[in-house]
Records
---
Amino acid sequence: MGPWSAVLLYTQHGEQCLAHTSVGLLLPCTFHHVLRRHLGPLLVLGPGAAWKLLSGVREGQTQVDTPQVGDMAYWSHPIDLHFATKGLQGWPRLHLQVWSQDSFGRCQLAGYGFCHVPSSPGTHQLDCPTWRPLGSWREQLARAFVGGGPQLLHGDAIYSGADRYRLHTAAGGTVHLELGLLLRHFDRYGVEC
Amino acid sequence: MNPQEEKVKIITEEFIENDEDADVGRQKTSRVQRRKRKKQLPTAGPDEMVSEKSHLGDQQEPGHEDPNADARPLSMPTRRGPRSLPPIPSASRTGFAEFSMRERMREKLQAARSKAESALLQEIPTPRPRRLRSPSEKELETEFGTEPGGKIQTTQQEDDSQSYSRVKFRDSVRKIKSKTPVPPGFPSAEEAYNFFTFNFDPEPEESEEKPKAKNRDGANQEEGEGEEEEAPVPEGIDKTDEEVLLDDKDAVDFLLGLDRGAEDIVAVRPADYESVHIRLQKEKELLFIPSRRTVPTYKKLPENVQPRFLEDEGLYIGARLEVPRTNQNIMENRLLMQEPGRRWFGDDGRILALPNPIKPFPSRPLVLTQEQDIKAELETLYKKLQALRNAVQVSLNPAKTPKSLDTTRRAINEYKSEIRQTRKLRDIEQEKDRTLLKTIIKVWKEMKSLREFQRFTNTPLKLVLRKEKVDQKADEEAYEAEIQAEISELLEEHREEYEQRMDEYRSAHQQWKAWKKAQRTKKKKKKQGVEEHPDDEMEEPYPEEDPVKPVPPEPTNQAVIEQEVRERAAQSRRRPGEPMLVPELSLAGSVTPNDQCPRVEVLRREDVKRRSVYLKVLFNDKEVSRTNSRPLGADFRVHFGQIFNLQIVNWPESLTLQVYETVGHSGTTLLAEVFLPIPETTVVTGRAPLEEVEFSSNQHVTLDHEGVGSGVPFSFEADGSNQLTLMTSGKVSNSVSWAIGENGIPLIPPLSQQNIGFRSALKRADAISSIGTSGLTDMKKLAKWAAESKLDPNDPNNAPLMQLILVATSGESYVPDFFRLEQLQQEFNFVSDEELNRSKRFRLLRLRSQEVPEFRNYKQIPVYDREIMEKVFQDYEKRLRDRNVIETKDHIDTHRAIVAKYLQQVRESVINRFLIAKHHFLLADLIVEEEVPNISILGLRLFKLAEQKRPLRPRRKGRKKVTVQNLSDGDIKLLVNIIRAYDIPVRKPITSKFQQPPRSSRTFSEKQAASPTTHSPTHSADYPLSQVLVRPFVEVSFQRTICHTTTADGPNPSWNEELELPFRAPNGDYSTTSLQSVKDDVFINIFDEVLYDVLEDDRERASGIHTRIERHWLGCVKIPFSTIYFQAKIDGTFKIDTPPVLLGYSKERSVVAERGFDPVRSLSEGSYITLFITMEPQLVPGESVREKTSDMLKKFDSQEDEKLLQATEKFQAECALKFPNRQCLTTVIDISGKTVFITRYLKPLNPPQELLNAYPNNPQATAELVARYVSLIPFLPDTVSFAGICDLWSTSDQFLDLLAGDEEEHAVLLCNYFLSLGKKAWLMMGNAIPEGPTAYVLTREQSHYLIWNPCSGHFYGQFDTFCPLKSVGCLIGPDNIWFNIQRHDSPLRINFDITKPKLWKSFFSRSLPYPGLSSVQPEELIYQRTDKAAAAELQDRIEKILKEKIMDWRPRHLTRWNRYCTSTLRHFLPLLERSQGEDVEDDHRAELLKQLGDYRFSGFPLHMPYSELKPLIEAVYSTGVHNIDVPNVEFALAVYIHPYPKNVLSVWIYVASLIRNR
């Protein structure tokens, strides 16, 4: 499936190096109903205050992939982050926004998604389902012809469910992630991974 | 709970012996046990064994409850919940449970029977008779806590008895369904069946509650009791008839369900329906409709409590919101019914409510605002007075208040004093009100008279006084009553006072009397004892003075008081019966039209029309914006209606509006300044009221028409009396507030920065006056003040203060002044922050990712902290520490140290600014795309097949460019092709003439002359031409790697060799920025290889050769690596930088000239070398950074005119279109990052006077000296200092202060000097070798043009072939830019006549005239004399350091210093400086020879500008003087520093090696 997986360092930590998390990340994405080019997910990693970014970039964007065979878009975007932490709160998670670009170069939202970074070391295959707000029928019609459409005002609705009941959503495909994690020194603080 | 459990255990232990009983139980109930366990799944208890034996469970009544409670949830899921008592599931236990259940059923049956007829359902579960231990029973009940709920449930179930069976059925099905997926091993059908049947077991408990039906059921149960213990299976048979039926059905259904699976889970049933009637009935029980009747107050208040009205006590109470009475009543009734706690009602028996938030805000003509305000205030005062009076009345009434007398008295006194004050205030307000009304009327009258006098009206203002008729009688009564009340109050006051005084008087009187008495007795005594104590007499009268007899106070005179009161009332109040006057201002009046006005008035009006007003907004004394200019209206009003949004960075200090007036088209005048207060943080957009600020100007204006003018006396009256002087004045109505951000947060500066004391001072000015500013910080004091001043705690105005005091005085209550985002974070931390920060590894990782220079390319960070050395951080920490400390150790000269520091800071700030741009990669940075071959390329390829394989004159082909990402050490090589050299100095044979006759051996030259065949056959050809041989070779050193060519012969050697030098990037970082900042130079040194015959004995000459090779430095070419990097290749002929004096060598140019060999070359002085330098692989130069940043640069603020900037862009685009390769520069970035038009840099600037004085009569010499001065300022390319980010231009004074700059700065300074010398000079932008794009200076002499290289100080004629400038892009003068549009761009072939528009395209032309741009340069340059002593000291230090270095470089040899020679050289260096290194050679040589005749001497002076020590050391090292390893060699080194003004230092280093001739 995935052409390659990058194993890169992504770390977290306690006193000394508490943990190393190595994240290799591969992001192919399946879309079954959109035949457009896919702008890669906008990746945002959002750990809490206890987490300190040692190196790497917290957020980024993949390239635009044009699926040529089938409707699977391959991004193979590496994520390389290294965290140190002094506590467990605010475990890092990935926020994804998948955008699609049509033949006119207009970008529109294809889906939001989020998933937690696994807590055990090793390579993980994650499937992150995404969704997008649907809007009224007018908006759907407009979206079909001219693009655009409703988007979340605040990103936190992606992961906090408080306000989500108001939304009408449509599924937006699944993002496959392949994360390689290295943890370090977690056992020293009684955290079993 | 536990005790009970324990008890169970104890009891069961007792029964362990009774095994027989247990046996029975085991057999019987193994199945039951299983299903029991299933049923009680979640709470399977541990003590199976225990319960098996507990047969006589009467004591275990608590245990009874369990199955009971457990069974219930089957039909009543609501009762499932955490149970405190763990159920004890076991076989015998079950039996026992059943048994007990039966017992209970029996009990209940009995109870039910007794009550069946009454059928009062609620009463069924009334306290069951217990046989044992009722207390624990009770406990249990409470513990279960489900009893009442259960009752309700059951009653409800009974209510809808019809649906009962259905419900039950459903439940059982559900139960079964949940059971179906049981773990394998259980016969599911059977088990389910058991389960099902068992399910029914507890059911009778409920069913018996159906009183009639359960009669028989209960009996059956009783009977079945015994059987059950033997055979549990037929349990289900023991049911009532109906239930058996049901059971069968259920069982069948259930079995079917098992077979069918999931389909039965979904049942299709008709919709449940309840008839409306029943529903209503049920609802009636649940619903409560509060009545609308008024609730009597006593109900709302606690018993025996009188309602208390705070308002009557004079406390502030906000107006309540208007709520209809019925609504209130409903509410009150409901509250009384629902929540009898009465917490809803206040002391006055009304529902607690917040005051009405709506504030009456008048909206009416402006004139009356003040008056209205007063009115409102007056009203509140009245109210308060009234309330206070009432309160006094109330509290004085003894019948009502049986409170402690003391408190009432005090309260009364307080009230009274308050009444007094309030009255006073009211009087004042009243008076104000009246006077205001009077003035309004007066002004209106004046206006009216004026209008009449003028016979026209200007403004539509109109005042109407509305009279409100008053009922004369009522009014009079009220008036009288008021007066009476006041009088009585006053009287009382006076009476009190009187009484008090009376008291005083009495006591005084008593005293007096006592004294009198005493006096009298004394007198008597005195009379008696005069004889005995004559002396006492004298003293006695003095100590006690005669107390004056107290005068009794006068009683108050009522009449007088009345008189006073009435007088006052007459003064300040409306007389009774007088109509109330309400002034109303309208704009309804008519303005006299223009044609009816007199001429002067028309003139005035026209003048007014011409005038317009605008406002400037100044923030912190800087203009931030201004309004539109608006014409002055006929009514002198200007409406702007503009909102200015200021985004502020600085702390707001002042906000000013400047009012400007414009008359017609002439200039503007500042009328006045209006200072606005900075709004408080609570004032945000939408909440800020419009405020009026008055202003007036002291300007004198006299007008020639009817207009009043300003500052001119005039009169309204016809006779000119009553003169008035009016100034221009007005009001600005404005509102200032803080904006609200997107998410509703006010954009207020953070509070921490504010001076809190100051702010609160604004808020509570009155508090300050009473307790002083310091009190505001002392909460206790503040609280005291608040208590003393009787601050009304209910007044919303005081709320924040009261809150503050409450918090502050309560002491312990700790109110954190922060908000914690992630609470409990600290508690769950593994480690503290400090510990985390201490980790060296993390620090290293972070620093690396932040690209801190020291760690930018740090590779392989160790895994463990202990493996990281502390010294890794040392450099970094030192740099951080020293950021502000200027250390002079590295820099010998303090000034340079400061400059270096400054440059470092500028660099850091610039780099930070471009950090984002640097990380923004273009496609070309990441992807190398090979060109797809197309037909034309294919054709060329085919063509190439026919090419010669090894052409005679090979050409260089373009190579592939390589991006720098995957490079590492050793991948990059520097290729230097040394091709040939011209005019190398040759050894001088003449030296021998001056030499002393050799004692033991001849000099080498003589020897060579004698035996020329030893070395080269060509010598013989040269020698007859009196030319001594030179055997030059080239040595290239780069990053301390040295390569050299073979030795060639003659002054015009041809090597044609390629040298390969490895390149190492600093820290192994091969990124573009890193490569750009490589400061290393490539030194290309030309040496002469000299062979010395060291054979001592001539006889051995035949058998062996013993020579020593010495090399003499002849000159060098220095090329910075950055140039190579940016140019990709360097190809050309360069002038060799030869020392001015080269002992033993001379240039034999005469020979060449005589031959007429090459007339062009002979013009030039010096030697030349042809080189080709490139890098392998070819790197993509980092120029893209500049392109990338061009967008950024546009964002840089510029103070240039927008039009000019547009014009520059257009000009550049046009030029680039025509000649894309020619440099065209119009705007540059100055050191603060602003875009500046380039001509602003050019301006005549005075060179140092010292230089002008040197050659007063020779302008050319002066020019050369100036050029030399400029060239002595060290060269520092911008690409190095700013790492390829951009080219910053500093002004000349900055340049002189920094003492470092690149070609542009040098050129600008030189050009400015030339301009001030009166020359015609231009800045010339073009390409030169080796610099690449650079700046030169062009001057026009009488007949020709000269091209000056500002960095070297050399000048070239226009037709000099060896001029390094190869192409000219544009010329820049102080007032224009000319772009070269000629066909050629080589200076040899172009015409420099800029007046010809066909050859030079000028920027400013007729269509865009030169706007007269001011210069960015200073008025004049100020030069400080350089401290000579400091220079001398520096000179000594450099000398010492260099000597040490030379010794270091010769670790295997002894280095001797020849002091005599050194001192000779030291004397000679100043001469060199004076002559600028020319024409001193011969004298010098002669002198040297005279003094050091018996030494073979080779040496040369080096000349450099001084920047820092390292280049000097490098230069000395590159000459290779230290490489001589003749055993008896001696060295001489002399340093001379010539100070020029402004700390420009010219450094001369004379290095020589001496070998004693034996």
---
Amino acid sequence: MILSRGPKLCNFLEWRGLKVVYKRYASLYFCMCVDADDNELETLEIIHHFVEILDRYFGNVCELDLIFNFHKAYYILDEVLIAGELQETSKKSVARVIAAQDTLIEHAKEQSNSLSNIIAQATK
Amino acid sequence: MALSGMRGLSVFISDVRNCQNKEQERVRVDKELANIRTRFKNERGLSVYEKKKYVWKMLYIYMLGYDVDFGHMETVQLISAPKYAEKQVGYIVTSCLLNENHDFLRLVINTVRNDIIGRNETFQCLALTMVGNVGGREFSESLAPDVQKLLISNSCRPLVRKKAALCLLRLYRKNPDVVNVDGWSERMVQLLDERDLGVLTAVMSLLVALVANTPHAYWNCVPKCVRTLERLTRGQDIPQEYTYYGIPSPWLQVKTMRVLQYFPKIDDPTIRKSLLDVLQRILLGTDVVKNVNKNNASHAVLFEALALVMHLDADKEMMSQCVVLLGKFISVREPNIRYLGLENMTRILLVADVADSIKKHQSQIITSLKDPDISIRRRSLDLLYGMCDVSNAKDIVEELLQYLTTADFGIREELALKAAILSEKFAPDLSWYVDVILQLIEKAGDFVSDDIWYRVVQFVTNNDDLQVHAAAKALDYLDKPAVHETMVKVSGYILGEYSHLLARRPGCSPRDIFHILNDKFPAVTTPTKALLLSACVKIMMHCQPPDPELVDQVVAVFRRYESSVDAEVQQRAVEFLALARKGTAFVDIMAEMPKFPERQSPLLKKAEDTDGDASEVSATKIRQQQMQQEQNSTALVVADPQPANGGLHPVSVPKTAAPARHSEQAVTSETPQDSKSFPPSQSQAHSNGGTPQQAPGHTPGSASADLLSDLVGPLSLEAPPPVASTSSSDLLALEAPPTPTAAAATPADSLALALLDSAPTQVQPLGNVSEWFKELTLKDSGVLYEDPYVQIGLKAEWRNAQGRIVLFVGNKHTGPLTNVKSSVLPPPHLRMQSAVVPENIPPRAQVQVPVDVACLSASRETAVLEFSFNVGHAPVSVQLKLPTSLNKFLQVAPVSANEFVARWRALGGPPSKLQEVVRGVRPMPLAEMANLFIRLHIGVANGLDPNVNNVVAATTFYSGTAATLCLVRVETDPSDRTQMRLTVASEDPNTTYELKEFIKEQVMDIPFPGQSPQAATVTPATIPLTGPAAALAGLI
């Protein structure tokens, strides 16, 4: 439905009593489905906000970044939206949280690496 | 950024991406699923790393659209893992793969709870996010208190608190009971002082949901919201990171304004003023800028401000300012703004009296109807539909018709329906209406439902001066090549009935017309063939003097279909053939169809129905309902908002009233109009002078069926049969009528009379009034009465000897109810005071009528409500029993065994203690009887009586200032449940007697005559729902 729409049309599409708000970035489409009386432009800018955060995180985000790091995209989305509602509007704050998460995971990995090193050495 | 070294996953993703086609992809995915499955089976050897990897793979496969129906256990187990990295994977994949009803979620509730109340902030975040995204009812019940604690905790970081706010929002949506309204509103006020804008945004989202449900509980938040909005719009004290393209958090602004829209109205003059000032600034201070995002964000705020202005019902000046703005928007190039401009124009039309200023933009709106974007076209269609009235109907409908030829299929059906509705609603004259519909059929026949052409036939039949015009038009259209089948039907029908009126015009001789019809036979479906056969026989019969050549040709047609495989066609052909042989003797049977009884337009009804569906969710509707709940102090009229897509405006276009109704007038003038006691069913029949819109929807419930039957009717000869399938029986009846011409003429003459007498116009309650009353005896809210026009709901509260009943009188109808009167007739033992009902109830509005009740003594009599109203000109009046039954003044009395026995003994015998063996009891198990007693507020004291077949109960009866303890004992016979011995004792003989009788009534199968809890009948005993057709069939 969205794909068949030309470039100069509006970003809203009525669908089964709901509205689909979408935005295209190169070959990627981001869509959100909202109630008929929700604020469409607000939703549109939530999409853009999310994309800006992705962009900042991945550094010029592209399709491949998202495909191979789909789980990262999920983390970030979880920091932006919960229960369909906007959680954080500050890009900085989101970036901080994600960075903190990354360190935690790295940290855990190092730990397990060092552990397995120790085990490996011990079993030698 | 590599996938944290998860090579296996990257390889898999690359593999899938390298697949040439869907088939290869499926093979690759299936292979992977099989692999994961076997690995999970031998779980022993699985390292933590592998577990994570496989779970990610599952999610990826799920994302591709494949079913993943295993491995949920492994995923859920990761949540319980001690380390962050595993937990995170577990939580995220769980929230994607499982929905709220999944059984496995139950397994983790405890782990999740431990994470939430634990000290580890990162775990708290994970758990809150997951619950926020999938949390269902069970989560709600077990986690809500902990989440609330986190939200208001001072020691938590903003990061956790904002997640807690949204998590609570989710839980609240699943189960509103988790938030205790009383205590929580104060908390919300405190939370609105939050300095961290991230938390404030989340809190505002929560507030939107809370206020939407119970606005009156959160009044104290209004000033804070207004202040927040002021602060945001002024840009005071907003950290740089919370501005978006230079705008201070547009999202928070929008949310704050959204909250304010859920409050019914803001009365406090200072708050209102400062709010309007802020809005004014937004309205005037928003400019179109180059940057798309900035533009979007600022307009998001602007449109929300517009919505709030509409909601606040601001003064005229501000409203017209809004219209000017919207007028600007609908002509800009940017499609989003154009779309929203049109959408909001439709909305403002519904709340404010701005129709005239919007009409100035009509040409621009019509241009948008041709926009390349379907979304915009739809908005523009809706707006045109909404702004249409008598003054511009011609222009707008003609535009719609013109557009219909080029419109794409996505919108055609809607377009056709809307054009049909508008032309019916606002037709300056009926011939125009007929023209429009015929054009509509020509241009978009596929989208013109049968309802639409049936309606045309009704109008033409009922309006003599329309018939010539319609016949001429029908002939024009039918004479064209490649005519749509619907056109054949409507034209065939009209020509069959009225073509003889054209006979003097050139090219309109019966023979010409027959040839045109005859040409259509090969191309049409069987039902249409049947219709054409009827048309032919009518043309033949109307031809004066008889034309032998024409008769021969027509007979040839009948012969052709004499052996048709279709039973209906065959039967008609055979019967018409027989009629043709009898010659002119039967010309009266082929007379024009009698007039149809007025009825609600099925189109309008359809539009109404769809509106109902669509508006159920809309915030405006919710808001409106809230308003109604708010104002329960006195009777008040609240008109429902017009639904967004135009819906039904209360229209009054008396100009279209059809003048020709002699036969009906003749009949109706015989009956008195004024008497209120006159059976409503008959007096309703008087209301036929109105316009189509005003015509009350007689028996809307069966309108469509009626309609169908009436219109299939013409296919048979003289009478609309009750339902299509039985039409053949009527035809059979035709064969039998007595031969004398005179006899044949009489039924035809009496047709109109019969039709009116038995017109299905009585107002029937939609259910059993006495059942409703019975229900209400046992509970305190429910339906008291409902018919096609009115619904009376009831809600009652009782405390000791006092009570308050609130009647909710709703007009279900599309026209206003006028001359509404209600009076409460209290029995001697009750003192009652009722608010006054407004005289008129607008369409789809509800009025609340509080009634205060005080009980003075015990009696089984109940109060009666006399309620009357007019629909159109027809008075309807009902008498309803109000559930002020004895038990409403009872309260369960906890009595100890000793006390009971002592009392029981003290109350020796009659008249304080009465005993009776009751027969004819509705057989019920003891538990059910106990249950019934409890529902009647007669408390059952278990174990007091050693005999298990007995029920002992105690209750207190309140009257005036007195409270009388009543004791009840029921002894049942397990072998015969239809009888029992009932003993009632109290200090007051009258109370004892009345209570005993009351209990008797409640347990007996057949209530006492005269005491039956049945409301006075609403309708006299008229023929139950027979169509005119049935009555006619009886006549023949």
---
Amino acid sequence: MWRAVLVGCRLLRPVSAAAAGPLRPQRLPPVAGAPRRGCAAARGAGGGGAGALGAVAERRQAADTVLPKFNIDFVVALLRQENAKDICVIQLPPEIKYCDYFIIVSGSSTRHLHAMAHYMLKMYKHHKEESDPHTQIEGKETDDWLCIDFGSIVIHFMLLETREAYELEKLWTLGSYDDQLAQMTPQSLPEDFIFGLTPNSSDHLETRTECNC
Amino acid sequence: SITGACRAIQKLTRVRVVDNSALGNTPYHRPPKCIHVYNKTGVGKVGDRILLAIKGEKKKALIVGHKMPGPTMTPRFDSNNVVLIEDNGNPIGTRIKTPIPYILRQKGEFSKVLAIARNFV
């Protein structure tokens, strides 16, 4: 099941701000035929310096995301304008009914992250119509991880150390084959666990909690 | 002795930590228990913050599933699942293996917990 995720999930290579050219046009001309898929390059530790890309992955015609104007290209263009480092855009398959695009961005300092987040929110508010839901910035009290959820796009602003610690790119691209998931010790059911047993016998629950401790 | 699930998570309920934080997974002779629910009523449902006592320390946590049946078309779990959280909302663990309900997305600012989750329900 998750093979489909690997195949369908497109990871666009992290683009460093240095390689950003002029702002891309908002609407890419419709491409006849299947769009080229970007090679999945799971971002290694500290390998953020992807540098100049030779073949830029041509993304699919930006589908309707939140708004007709506020789509993924616009978001990425804004991030580049803000000197965001290591923009990593992951397109999720529709089986994961979470969002369409998952963006992870690094900033140079706490203030940079806050500025970027507030700027994104401002542009969203500027472009949205009345019927669209409001969005809030999550993680305003933290100093290393902020997050904005725009319905079909989710943007995470993190510092570099936080990014290395959580490795969200690996989780969302590799799916079940993620190494941190594999390292988690699997919890096994206790021997006397019977499915459907009502929790009135004290043995059943006690052994379960012992196993989980 | 154990009663059935009549109120979801309240003070002194034993909970199960489902992320891969060190604090949640190292064995201890007492299970983690809720000592306070940050709610007007003392009952915590999915998406509420609680205070846990783990290994002699106090830690905030987020409820991601409970045994009590909730509103229709919401999942009911076989254990009271909880994810450890810092005071500022950052999750302490880095991965969550158990399924997480989608309601958390609309509930509040829990995108970070959803970001480290693996599968959704």
